């Protein structure tokens, strides 16, 4: 069995199986052992851990995880990779490969079945176009999670950890920070992948919070307000919320709510943190009630 993580072994495996990269799956395989070590170290994987790996590819990271974890479940969407994974993971008895779409998987059932409902660790090298739906899907399902360690586009990592008032700050920053504490573990240049992506990447660990940093009566309304205020980020908060197709509050209701929440009338959404958005959601909810 080949130990993966360098270009030569990766090319040999792909040629042996006559594998062709599929653009629709955003496939970029890691070929740098230092980066692989950093990811596993960042995730803090130990023998007592169950790890859900999303997008194992040819099994490069999976091998590293199997060496350290108690049990690994690797979920791969591309059925062409399943025979390769059978070969590259044949030496490990603590791994199971599942062919399927992570967005359709019942992760709560996975946690119950493999880890007695205890918090699981998630590790992923995600296709960039689907990063946000996967991460938010994990959080919003309220599955018990210890941490989520992901390889993402560098600018996405910057947005996840951005603070109010910065140009990177947006709806994704607030959504991630409502559920987790982000920590940038490593920057990864394009030459660490095959094929090379056009952009730099980063490894970010999201330490899941045992309780959300703010309390809000209507979580869904708060996130609708957040999205509406960043859809037109150059507008004032009042204009952004009034013009949003996601919301059905009148201009007067929004003006009243901003005043009652003790926010400056001309403030922009990009200046607000979770606390202010939660307060605004509670005030608007009360106005309707």
What does this structure look like?
The chain is α/β, with parallel strands linked by helices and 289 residues long. The protein is built from twelve helices and nine strands. It has helices at 7-16, 33-43, 60-68, 82-88, 107-115, 131-140, 154-160, 171-179, 219-231, 237-242, 251-260, 274-288, and strands at residues 29-30, 50-54, 71-76, 95-99, 120-125, 145-153, 180-188, 193-194, 201-208. The strands form two sheets. It has a seven-stranded mixed sheet with strand order 4-3-2-5-6-9-7, with helices on both faces. α4 (82-88) links the parallel β3 and β4 (95-99). α9 packs across α12 (274-288). The radius of gyration is 21 Å and the shape is elongated. The termini are far apart. The relative contact order is 0.11.
């Amino acid at each position: 069995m080949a130990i993966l993580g360098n270009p030569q072994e990766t090319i040999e495996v792909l040629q042996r199986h006559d594998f062709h990269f599929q653009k629709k799956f955003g496939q970029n395989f890691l070929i740098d052992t230092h980066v692989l070590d950093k990811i596993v170290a960042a995730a803090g994987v130990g023998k007592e851990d169950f790890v859900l790996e999303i997008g194992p590819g040819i099994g490069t990271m999976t091998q590293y995880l199997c060496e350290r974890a108690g049990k690994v479940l690797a979920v791969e969407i591309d059925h062409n990779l399943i025979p390769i994974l059978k070969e590259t993971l044949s030496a490990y008895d603590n791994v199971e490969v599942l062919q399927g779409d992570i967005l359709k998987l019942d992760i709560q059932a996975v946690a119950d079945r493999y880890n007695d409902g205890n918090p699981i660790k998630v590790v992923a090298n995600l296709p960039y176009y689907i990063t946000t739906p996967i991460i938010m899907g994990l959080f919003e399902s309220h599955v018990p999670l210890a941490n989520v360690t992901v390889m993402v586009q560098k600018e996405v990592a910057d947005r996840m950890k951005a603070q109010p008032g910065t140009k990177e700050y947006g709806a994704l920053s607030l959504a991630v920070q409502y559920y987790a504490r982000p920590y940038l573990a490593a920057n990864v240049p394009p030459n660490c992948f095959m094929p090379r992506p056009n952009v730099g990447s980063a490894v970010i660990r999201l330490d899941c919070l045992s309780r959300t940093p703010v309390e809000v009566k209507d979580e869904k309304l708060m996130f609708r307000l957040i999205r509406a205020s960043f859809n037109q980020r150059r507008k004032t908060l009042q204009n952004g919320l009034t013009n949003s197709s996601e919301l059905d509050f009148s201009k007067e209701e929004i003006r009243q709510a901003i005043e009652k929440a003790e926010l400056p009338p001309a403030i922009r959404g990009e200046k607000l943190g979770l606390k202010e958005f939660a307060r605004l959601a509670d005030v608007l909810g009360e106005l309707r009630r």
